[in-house]
Design brief:
This protein is α+β, with helices and mostly antiparallel strands. It has twelve helices and 13 strands. Strands 1, 2, 3, 4, 5, 6, 7, 8, 9, 10, 11, 12 and 13 form a 13-stranded mixed β-sheet that branches. The longest helix is centred in the C-terminal third of the chain and has 18 residues.
Length: 391
């Protein structure tokens, strides 16, 4: 497993300095709360729009749905304000874990297996606001470890954390999590640009064979009561396959289902459905933000697997997105073979850990990471590890 310190970092973007609240005017506060006051929602949405690739996963629609569904025991907010205006926000949770038999207090991003991206929010280009959020966390005295999952490469959240960690004497680690495939969409480029000749041939063959079964229709449900009905179609399709057999389908996990039910109620969601003779065979759950499509979940009827309904649905989603002015399809989470067929670009994500300069913080680092990292530096360590794996 790759572990980076402040001397070995992923690529960090240099943010543009846009107009916004002046430096020195910002006040930061940390509180135990699931969400800020209702009067802050407009500011929260505005801040999320400043981070187009992470915003949809930390905006109020996503975060409130996530918090209601998964009910963190101690939700935490750190907010930065310029007067009464919200200019920075991070939605976290406090948990207590056992590390090597010792209780460790962890401030953790509000993320889990259903959350694919996370970052702190701030006015565009204002790294100093992100640094103030980090200082508030590090100086609160409420945790031994801060753990933020799935921060996209280039996020100012990473750069600000490392700056503050060095300033305050916290040890920092960065580990890779997801390499997320994504595909740019442009009206001046053919929808199938970049696809291999073999893959295009397979798509045409699958399209022809599915059409031989009967009329193939494609519909995208975007609003109204039909969106809930379309979500139920997705639930049935996903549970019809191996996920249903393993008990991991969304409809079989009450908290996860509650999350997606809440998200559809609050956020802009598209649910494309592919049907044959009126019977649904594949469906997506897509989160829309600006001109970007984020693919959250996909499901298809396993009895149609030889006709590649998921691939045929994706091809239609791309064309539909182009027709409606979309500029990117983000396939989310980690790489997979079927995603690589569609997208050559990848967006790296990282887990960031900061360890407090306290006895418990130092213990947490050494018991979980430090001994392993130091052992790798010993002469012959790599050769010994290879030998042990063969025994």
């Amino acid at each position: 497993m790759f572990v980076a310190t402040s001397n070995m970092l992923p690529t960090l973007a240099t943010p543009r300095r846009d107009s916004g609240p002046q430096r020195g005017d910002v006040q930061t506060a940390l509180m135990t709360a699931a969400a800020p006051s209702s009067g802050d929602y407009a500011g929260w949405r505005l801040l999320a729009s400043h981070g187009p690739f992470s915003g949809p996963f930390v905006d109020p629609h996503w975060m409130l749905s996530w918090t209601e569904a998964f009910a963190p025991q101690e939700p935490v907010l750190v907010c930065a304000r310029d007067g009464r205006r919200l200019v920075g926000l991070a939605a976290l949770q406090r948990v207590v874990e056992s590390w090597g038999g010792r209780r460790v207090a962890v401030l953790q991003s509000r993320t889990n297996a259903e959350s694919f991206r996370f970052a702190f929010l701030s006015w565009r280009g204002r790294v100093d606001i992100q640094e103030q959020l980090w200082r508030a966390l590090c100086q609160s005295g409420d945790c031994d470890v801060i753990r933020i999952e799935h921060v996209p490469e280039g996020s100012p959240t990473l750069a600000a954390a490392l700056t503050v960690a060095e300033e305050l004497g916290w040890r920092s680690l960065i580990q890779p999590t997801f390499l997320t495939p994504w595909r740019p969409l442009s009206p001046t480029v053919p929808w199938d640009d970049g696809l291999t000749r073999r893959f295009r041939r397979n798509l045409r063959r699958a399209e022809r064979r599915l059409g031989e079964l009967g009329e193939v229709c494609f519909e995208v449900v975007t609003t109204g009561t039909r969106l809930k009905q379309a979500l139920d179609v997705f639930y049935r399709l996903e549970a019809s396959g191996w996920k249903g057999q393993r008990g991991t389908a969304v409809a079989q996990r009450s908290q996860v289902k509650r999350f997606y039910d809440g998200l559809v109620d609050r956020a802009e969601v598209w649910i494309p459905i592919l049907t044959v003779c009126g019977d649904p065979v594949a469906a997506y759950v897509l989160r829309i933000s600006g001109h970007n499509i984020f693919a959250l979940k996909t499901g298809y009827d396993q009895t149609y697997s030889k006709y590649a309904p998921g691939l045929l649905l994706t091809s239609r989603v791309i064309r539909y997105g182009l027709e409606h002015g979309m500029e990117m399809l983000d396939l989310m989470a980690s790489q997979a073979r079927w995603k690589a067929d569609w997208a050559r670009e990848v967006r790296p994500h990282y887990e960031l850990l900061l360890f407090a300069p306290t006895p418990t913080g130092r213990y947490a680092y050494w018991v979980r990471y430090g001994v392993r990292q130091q052992a790798r530096k010993l002469p012959g360590a790599a050769r010994l590890a290879r030998w042990l794996r063969t025994r």
